[in-house]
Amino acid sequence: MSAPRDAPNGIGKAMKHLDLDGHDLPPSPTPSTPTNGRKYALATELVYTESNDQFNSSSTPIYQSATFKGGPGQEYDYTRSGNPTRTHLERHLAKIMNANRALVVSSGMGALDVITRILKPGDEVVTGDDLYGGTNRLLTYLKNNNDIKVHHVDTTKLASVKAAVNDKTTMVLLETPTNPLIKIVDIAGIAAAAHEANPKAIVAVDNTMLSPYLQNPLDLGADVVYESGTKYLSGHHDVMAGVIGINDASLGEKFFFMINSTGCGLAPFDSWLLLRGIKTLAVRIEKQQTSSQAVAEFLENHGFKVRYPGLKSHPQYALHWSQARGAGAVLSFETGSVALSERIVESTNLWGISVSFGCVNSLISMPCRMSHASIDPATRKERELPEDIIRLCVGIEDLNDLIDDLSQALVRAGAVRLTEGGFEALSSGETRGESGKTTQVVDEP
Ligand SMILES: Cc1ncc(COP(=O)(O)O)c(C=O)c1O
Ligand SMILES: N[C@@H](CCSC[C@H](N)C(=O)O)C(=O)O
């Protein structure tokens, strides 16, 4: 790559870099100079990248090279420490995440691992009671093995968070909307409370459910934003990636130190795939959330308890819209019966039964059996995660096809009663059966 030394993104500008113990480090390839100056609207910026090679290629080249010839002082020497394709992606991400610096690693969990490696024995973490299963698993590991105290509280209640944070709170870790209960947490309110309790506390927000197209936690007072690039940013379920955005230069250097030391930086080809995916983020999300709204209304109008921040019935509708620009494309609903939920999921044809979300294909899943199965049943119960909950992740297919397929699944599973005008949900306690038959639903004990 031939980025000029004085390029506006700051590539190559001399900076002071410290390792975790404060020792000088050579400059890392993506300095912490502000990169978020946007010229255009976000949808344009997603597509717009400066050419970064000598031939002005339209698509960023994939520098599929582990090493770079030269000697001391050159910008790149080894891909674990830095790679031009990865740098290009990081500069692009910093711009769209409203961050001074972005870093990319091999998965969303890899991103959380990098972030939580700054915790030391005795540190305290305050987090939510509805979290992605993998996040819960990593936090539980840290609690059991690294003497980190992890407090799970209802982060939808600012008072509960205020009661949990204190001067020993090193990190506050939030999801909003949460996965899978689609709860909304007040990022600005919690960030202020955490920083008041301990000015050094790091507030990290998992932005996977919305992506930077719909929400920018750093603008709301968070110190770190991270997300699984496996989801909306890439959009096609063909790459695993994790993204971290920060404004604070020394925090950025600590995270870079971890990435270089552990070797979890995103590979060149995967960086290229993520760059390609980001270009269509706006059109995908716009289409996905328009369809999600229709699917959510369809289910709600047929008597289901639906969790989606695009619905006025969402208890934190106003809060969500005060901090996000859209409702996203993940929703969940309850049926009142695990067996019924299983039948609905298994009766779909177009909706793929799969973990994950953010892909162009629509997916259906039962979180307690799939994405959140690593949370033990007793904890799921304690945290009021309904076993029957069905999660829908809406893709870009034709909306009528999606609703038709869902309708036939609801009918086949016996979740609704056929009426003259269509169908309606059965009231709780009514016998639910396959269409035409009467079958008593018996949930396992
Ligand atoms: C909210 C959330 N955060 C983080 C992750 C982890 O991302 P990845 O699968 O890319 O490691 C996931 C899903 O896996 C997720 O749903
Ligand atoms: N077997 C995996 C499950 C991944 S779940 C992926 C995604 N975050 C989702 O919510 O669907 C694991 O144990 O991590």
TrEMBL record:
<dbReference type="InterPro" id="IPR015424">
    <property type="entry name" value="PyrdxlP-dep_Trfase"/>
</dbReference>
<dbReference type="Pfam" id="PF01053">
    <property type="entry name" value="Cys_Met_Meta_PP"/>
</dbReference>
<dbReference type="InterPro" id="IPR006238">
    <property type="entry name" value="Cys_b_lyase_euk"/>
</dbReference>
<dbReference type="InterPro" id="IPR054542">
    <property type="entry name" value="Cys_met_metab_PP"/>
</dbReference>
<keyword id="KW-0486">Methionine biosynthesis</keyword>
<dbReference type="GO" id="GO:0071266">
    <property type="term" value="P:'de novo' L-methionine biosynthetic process"/>
</dbReference>
<dbReference type="GO" id="GO:0019346">
    <property type="term" value="P:transsulfuration"/>
</dbReference>
<dbReference type="GO" id="GO:0030170">
    <property type="term" value="F:pyridoxal phosphate binding"/>
</dbReference>
<dbReference type="InterPro" id="IPR000277">
    <property type="entry name" value="Cys/Met-Metab_PyrdxlP-dep_enz"/>
</dbReference>
<keyword id="KW-0663">Pyridoxal phosphate</keyword>
<dbReference type="GO" id="GO:0005737">
    <property type="term" value="C:cytoplasm"/>
</dbReference>
<keyword id="KW-0028">Amino-acid biosynthesis</keyword>
<dbReference type="GO" id="GO:0047804">
    <property type="term" value="F:cysteine-S-conjugate beta-lyase activity"/>
</dbReference>
<dbReference type="InterPro" id="IPR015421">
    <property type="entry name" value="PyrdxlP-dep_Trfase_major"/>
</dbReference>
<feature type="region of interest" description="Disordered">
    <location>
        <begin position="1"/>
        <end position="36"/>
    </location>
</feature>
<dbReference type="InterPro" id="IPR015422">
    <property type="entry name" value="PyrdxlP-dep_Trfase_small"/>
</dbReference>
<protein>
    <recommendedName>
        <fullName>Cystathionine beta-lyase</fullName>
        <ecNumber>4.4.1.13</ecNumber>
    </recommendedName>
</protein>
<keyword id="KW-0456">Lyase</keyword>
<feature type="modified residue" description="N6-(pyridoxal phosphate)lysine">
    <location>
        <position position="231"/>
    </location>
</feature>
<comment type="similarity">
    <text>Belongs to the trans-sulfuration enzymes family.</text>
</comment>
<comment type="pathway">
    <text>Amino-acid biosynthesis; L-methionine biosynthesis via de novo pathway; L-homocysteine from L-cystathionine: step 1/1.</text>
</comment>
